[in-house]
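Response to reviewer comment R2.3. The reviewers asked that we include at least one raw input/output pair. We reproduce the pair for ABC transport system ATP-binding protein here without editing.
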Amino acid sequence: MIELQNVTLTFPDGDRRKTAVDDVTLRAEAGRVTGLTGPSGSGKSSILAVAATLIRPDAGQVLLGQGSGQVDAAQLSGREAARLRRQRVGIVFQQSNLLPALTSREQLHVMGRLGGSWGQRQRRELEARADELLDAVGLAAHVHQRPHQLSGGQRQRVAIARALVHQPEILLIDEPTSALDQERGAEIMELIAGLTRDRLTATLLVTHDLVHREALDDLITVVDGQIAAPTRA
Ligand SMILES: Nc1ncnc2c1ncn2[C@@H]1O[C@H](COP(=O)(O)OP(=O)(O)OP(=O)(O)O)[C@@H](O)[C@H]1O
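Raw output as returned:
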């Protein structure tokens, strides 16, 4: 689970500051896909960046997990936040940011190894998990291909598999369908919904258009940096 409590984020704007996120409280629960929607510039990506621990808010709490494992990411140093991300957070941005020289399988291996020190047993487990994930996203036949040999939808699938390889509790995705046609977009959304339920990740997803809203469990609308309407999707 991830919960933002009374989060405010401002950016420098000339000699003043602009409020991008204005006292936002929201929660994304394990095993559910929570959509963040709203007009351009309303603050969706800023909220996602705070949830991803990539930006520390000016005020508020960013609570990851529950019980004794709960951490307030807003209190962590940059180094601690980076460690938390490597262990507990999966991130998929609009551009898949795959490394051009690596095959699909190698993209997952590299990401998986960032999480810690690796003995032989962990390495074998990681490699098995990478292949299982590439299979789960429908790319078993493409493990040896590099990004330029894949379609946009296939690259997006590699990016999703890569974000899950360290078994994160939280999955954050920015506009997963923006570069895809409607049919491929629907397939990606279904895939995300299935992985979320199977792996019990708390998935928070920014989406501009609501064509694919049936794949969402909850929907939060952001207007002018504030939550306008949290609803069941
Ligand atoms: N790094 C930054 N520096 C200054 N202002 C920023 C920065 N990032 C975002 N903003 C501003 O914060 C506000 C919210 O931007 P954000 O990108 O979060 O909106 P969004 O809803 O994701 O927009 P879009 O749907 O167009 O991607 C906007 O006014 C934007 O100009």
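The domain at 2-232 is CATH 3.40.50.300 (Rossmann fold). The two ends are 18 Å apart (CA to CA). Further pairs are available on request from the corresponding author.
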